[in-house]
# Entry
Amino acid sequence: MSLKRPENECSDPDCPFHGSLAVRGRVLDGVVVSDRMAKSVVIRIDYTRFNRKYERYARASSRITAHNPPCIDAKRGERVRVAECRPLSKTKSFCVVEKLAEEA
# Structure
C-alpha cells in the first residue's frame, strides 16, 4: 500500500516519514476520539461481528492508542489511517500515517 507523504517536516525520531520508525503489519482506518495526550491519539475502529446465536451481525468497536507525529498532527473527529509498528510504549504499537478526511 502506498502512503501519501505529509507536506510538513518534523524532527521526531518516531516518525515513519522523517525518522527511523519502520511500519509493518496491519493497516487500519478509524476516527480520532481523543487527542489530549502529547504525541498520541486514541482511535476508534468500527467493525461488524457475527453473532451465532441470533444469526445476525452486530456492530462493535475497538479503541487503539497510536503515535501522532508532529508532521501529521491529527485532531479529534478526523478520519485517519494507522499502521502497525514496534511497541513504542506499554499501549502504543500503532502510528498515524495518513489523514483521510474530517468526520461529518
